Predict the 3D structure of the following.
Amino acid sequence: MSIHDATHVPGAPIEKPRATLWGVGGVVQAPDGTIWQVVTPSKKDTGPATTHVDQIVLLLGADDVGASKRFYVDHGLTVAKSFGEYVEFDAGTSPVTLGLLKRRALAKDAGVPPEGTGSHRLTIVGDAGAFADPDGFAWEVMSVGAEH
C-alpha cells in the first residue's frame, strides 16, 4: 500500500504522512483501537500503489530495552539489528519480525500517551512455551491451524 493511499481509509483517524525514524509514514487507528504505523523507506513516490508488503515489524514498547532484549535472547531469539533504544530480532525468511523500542519513543512516534491502555497480550504460534516478558506481554502457545 502506498502511504499516500492510507489516508483514504474510511473512518480511521490519521495523521498526514511525514518523515519518521523509519521512513515516510503515517499512523492509522483501526476500529478496534489498534494503532498501526504504515511506513515506506522510499523518500519519493516511486510508482503506483500496490498491495505488496515487504516486511511487518511487531514493535513492542519496552520500559527497559536492554532487559527485554536479554529476555528474548534467553528465549532463543537472535538479534538482527540493535542500536540505541531499538532492537529487531532475526525473522529468518519470514516477512514478520519482532522489534523493541523504548516505550516513550514508540508512544511519541505513534502520538499516544506512553502509559498506554492497550493490550499486553500476544498469541504466537510455536513451541517455546508460555511466558510473560519484562513489560508484561504474555505469550501463549497455539497449534498451527487452531482457532483462538
